[in-house]
Amino acid sequence: MSVPIPQPPRIPFIGNVHQMDTDVPINGFMLLAKQYGEIFRIDILGRGSVSINTYALQQELSDEKRFRKFLGGAMVEARALGGDGLFTAFDEEPNWGIAHRLLMPAFNAIAIRDMFNDMQDLCDQLLLKWERFGPEHIIEPTEDYTRAALDTLALCTMSLRLNSFYTDDQPKFGTAVSDFIKECFFRANRPSILQAMMTGTNHKFYEDRQYLWSVAENIFKERKANPIAKKDLLNIMLHSEDSKTGQRLSDDAIIKNLLTFLVAGHETSSGMLSFMTYYLLRNPSTWRKLQQEVDEVTGGQRVQVHHLGKFHYLEAVMRESLRLAPTAPARAVTPREDVVLNGKYSVKAGTPCVIQAWLTHRDPAVWGPDANEFRPERMMDGKFEALPPNAWQPFGFGTRACIGRPFAWQEVLLIMSSVAQKFDLSLADPSYLLDLKQELSVKPRGLQIRARLRTSGPHLYASPSSQLLPRAAQSWSNYAKSSNHVEQSNHAGTSLVPMYTLYGSNTGTSEAFAQRIANSAPAYGFAAKLGTLDSATGNLPTDGPIVIVTASYEGLPADNAAQFIDWLTSLESNQLKGVRFAIFGCGHSDWVKTLHKIPLLCDRLLESHGGERLLAPGLGLSGKGNFFEVFDEFESNLWKVLSEKYVVTQSHFASIGFEITPVDTVATRANTLRQPDTALGTVKVNRLLTQPGHAIKRHIEFELPAGMTYRTGDYLSILPQNPPRDVQRVLTRFNVSNEQMVVLSSVGPTSLPTDQPVSLYQILLGYVELSQPATTQDLRIMSDVATTDSTRTALKEMRSSYQAKILAPRLSVLDILEKYPSSDIKLSLGIFLRMLPSMRIRQYSISSSPLWNPQHATLSISVLESPSLADKNKVFLGVGSNYLSKLSAGDRVQMSVRASHGGFHPPEDPSTPIIAFAAGSGLAPIRGFIEERAMQKRSGRDVGKIMLFFGCRDPEGDYIYKEQLDEWVELGVLDVRPAFSRAPEKSSSCKYVQDRLWENRDDVVDLFEDNAQVFICGSSRVAKGVMSKWAEILQSNDPSLSAEEATKRLEETMQGRYATDVFDV
Ligand SMILES: Cc1cc2nc3c(=O)[nH]c(=O)nc-3n(C[C@H](O)[C@H](O)[C@H](O)COP(=O)(O)OP(=O)(O)OC[C@H]3O[C@@H](n4cnc5c(N)ncnc54)[C@H](O)[C@@H]3O)c2cc1C
Ligand SMILES: NC(=O)c1ccc[n+]([C@@H]2O[C@H](COP(=O)([O-])OP(=O)(O)OC[C@H]3O[C@@H](n4cnc5c(N)ncnc54)[C@H](OP(=O)(O)O)[C@@H]3O)[C@@H](O)[C@H]2O)c1
Ligand code: HEM
Ligand SMILES: Cc1cc2nc3c(=O)[nH]c(=O)nc-3n(C[C@H](O)[C@H](O)[C@H](O)COP(=O)(O)O)c2cc1C
Q1: Of 509, 552, 769, which is best to mutate to test ligand 4, by the most ligand atoms within 8 angstroms of its C-beta?
Q2: What 3-state DSSP class applies to 182?
Q3: Which of 115, 133, 159, 397 shows its CA 20 to 30 Å from the CA of 575?
Q4: How much is the pTM?
Q5: How far is it, in rounded angstroms, from Cα 423 to Cα 542?
Q6: For 793-811, what is each residue's pLDDT tens digit?
Q7: By three-state DSSP, how is residue 840 classified?
Q8: How far apart are CA 1011 and CA 1001, in angstroms?
Q9: End-to-end CA distance of the chain, in Å?
Q10: Is 464 touching ligand 4 by the criterion CB < 6 Å?
Q11: For ligand 3, atom 32, which residue shows the shortest CA distance?
Q12: Where are the beta strands (DSSP E) in 324-467?
């Protein structure tokens, strides 16, 4: 029986235009496919088409007897340039047949092999450029790959040198192609009457067309006037006859095909190289394996043509990159006669069917549950050959498949092997997540890398942990400048010993600690350079001590340490002889099994490979009150050991390195130094979720910065500002006006804006944490400048009873200064600023689904505003939550999306049931899961049930999103089991979610047996409570189990079916 093909709701005349993502169309198609499933119909301005999203349908449509290539929309517009050239020809046009038969032999294996030397010529230009740039230069690889691909194509097929590497701008040809193609897509989606009125746009379109045509025409005329003997593609077209018809291509047809090759043959290959670079760097072990293979095959010699066939791993990387990121993202076919697809969907002859390779290539039915992962191993050792037929189709299918495939393959093999042989690459922003740019083909947007020669010495550079921070760093007169200061002071004749402080950090804590050590270094006789761990991959210096501060994430390294750890793990013994190191690890006791895993691994490997451990690793727990004290102790031991091991000249710590000069002018405020608009999201809604008298929770909706996308379950990182109240407290204590401008100068690296006039208010607002507990070192510094004995004694006591007097009440430096008259502790504002850690980002679970609105994301936050632990009469304000809570519609916020860890996303198959436990604002990500299922259900998909255990205090006070949850229950996607901790009588006597779990255990066990996935979100106490109650359920079913056995069995049963996202404030 025929089943209607689902279709998103249409608007009269324009159809589904509003559901299209005009910037990156495949993003829109991916979301629609999530919502509507294997197939859906869309209608753009009266033109209907069908989107094909699964392997099974792709396979069915890969049958030339029933389907033929369809040329419509933008491709028809592109015929203004390509006409009946190979790519844009209709099947039946005679020139397609002639060109196809003439040119196929030009791409046979021997012909391509003969092009190797020309290809290498251009590849060398790329390598030379990157080498000359040096290790700290930020490279836009896509631009350089485009230069290489365009020039290679022109040289190999037309014997023409375009010399794109000799211009700073992108080649004009490339820009004109890009503008022309973009406009083809717009024209295809514009009503003709509107098109006719857009005279400026039309003029530009025809101007671009004319320019491109003239380029090809000149190549053609030049060759006719100056013939050469080489058997290149142009000569084949000029001089050969079609064996079947005896006809030659007309001049006009030759020019169209020249253009076709120039256009079709460079963007796709350069995109492929760019995606490979991204995937390899995101998965450092694959990059290392590739380098190993290239080294083994070439033995260090220049890459030769005979090496290419031996790069088996590289080939697997190429296949896997093209699977995940097919740069030609879709192809269209149409049924020759009316058909019924998959035995149920009727499609009329002539209807365009768009095969979405970005979706079919990720179909779990072929690629398994890890279909979204980059795993080259699935493409080698016979596995590629064993794939089901037509599962991998980045080059199209049948007679209209890509003619340039062998050309692109050889070019990419050569370029990528040569790059891997010569450079260590790293992402300029370690937290960069793939963002797409789509024209005729797809490329990564904003991908930036650094390339360091594999044989060179150490070159550290500081690349801040968060996507948000690098921009800040750049605008804050940048780290590089600060580290130059260090070098300058060294060269100036002082006897500072080199030192390297390296960090692996996602949210900035380890980075701030590393920076603190680097700041103090000059005082102890060291010139510290600050850098990410990744920046030291392959090159650990031996001319000074190395201090590493690093975190772990689910047992894995932070984003900017992944390459380093991978390298370290791959070393052989004694390769690190001469390296002297000390390590401080940041961790959290919630991650019991992987506590401090990365710092401890570093410590072990550095030593086992011959490094000398300078002191025992310091291990701090970020959730524990004594975190800073543990760090202080480590730092003080560090300086002690270093002063014994190295000959250094020390100076007084409090007076060196950081100066502050007031400036008279009240000029433009320092907030002009904030990050560029591209990362600024806009607040749309900020509303209260709780009733008066209850702890405040709020719903905040943002419009994301342009081009930023997210998956359900991801986080939003926010760079907050301190509460103005606390900034004012500092100004009052130091008796300065809030209009005060200052110039900061620093000898060591700093994340404050130096050497330019800035507003002190802005620095205090946005660049430093004001409420962290004072460290023992801070207390020592304050003692040093205390003017009365009684104050000195009090500060001494705080040090000796640090836990009770500082950590328990969380007394900050500011709190302490406020306790005494300013004449008692004569601390300068400069030293105060230097004591403060730099502002950290705060992460929040996104509580919406992109199926609801891909450009908007919501947060559900709990506002930290409670009586201060230091003084019950004062109120403590959490920085991030209060900053967010005060935002109004229209405010702009610095933000970035971060992928969530540990599979905290809705299952790929929406029919999989879910059991979720959430308390308070822990509902955030689960709300996104439910919203996603609701959207899918409303679109006609079969969705599995979500059984939600939700904990709050009271049904009337803080039952957040109650109405919406009720709506989703009504819709049939949700079943809520609340637990009201302060009104358990209203929730079947259950106080907490774990009590409700016990109460409803039979339902839970049934759903779990029905293959449900389990998710827990909230504080760690909730996760512990749920897991121990679940173990009790197992015990109650099998009383022979001990508590330990029950826990073990639970872990086994839950394996792969359970994910938590917990964090305590
Ligand atoms: C992955 C992840 C996802 C998260 N998702 C969410 C979410 O969806 N919603 C949400 O609301 N939160 C979420 N959080 C928590 C969030 O990131 C912040 O930690 C939280 O908002 C508190 O930050 P803050 O800046 O307001 O407080 P901060 O300024 O960071 O203050 C917190 C510190 O102050 C201390 N403190 C607490 N009370 C007092 C007091 N009375 N006196 C003195 N000191 C005190 C605490 O011990 C803590 O060290 C998430 C956290 C993570 C890691
Ligand atoms: N992705 C994430 O990691 C993420 C996302 C959002 C929130 N969070 C975290 O989740 C926590 C929730 O904060 P909130 O202010 O929103 O919550 P809340 O309102 O303080 O608490 C929510 C409910 O949980 C109950 N509860 C307290 N102790 C419990 C326990 N041991 N077991 C089960 N339930 C318990 C509370 O009961 P009583 O107060 O009556 O005891 C209350 O009913 C925070 O620590 C936050 O950082 C994490
Ligand atoms: C990674 C690189 C490349 C990819 C992913 C790619 C992909 C594709 C795809 C999917 C098609 C079929 C389009 C359709 O069915 O509508 C195609 C066709 C074509 N490609 Fe490529 N291509 C690549 C490189 C090249 C190169 C280097 C050239 C030229 C040297 C080239 C020239 C062509 C031509 C001329 C066609 C049209 C063939 C015809 O219809 O007869 N391509 N390509
Ligand atoms: C999602 C997530 C996973 C974590 N995993 C671990 C872990 O496996 N082991 C550990 O010791 N700490 C873990 N932590 C705690 C962090 O390492 C710790 O908070 C650290 O201070 C963060 O440092 P950073 O700010 O420099 O990134 C995790 C924290 C989060 C948010």
Answers
A1: 552
A2: helix
A3: 133
A4: 0.81
A5: 21
A6: 999 999 999 999 999 999 9
A7: coil
A8: 16
A9: 56
A10: no
A11: 404
A12: 330-335, 339-341, 345-347, 353-356, 423-427, 436-438, 442-444, 449-453
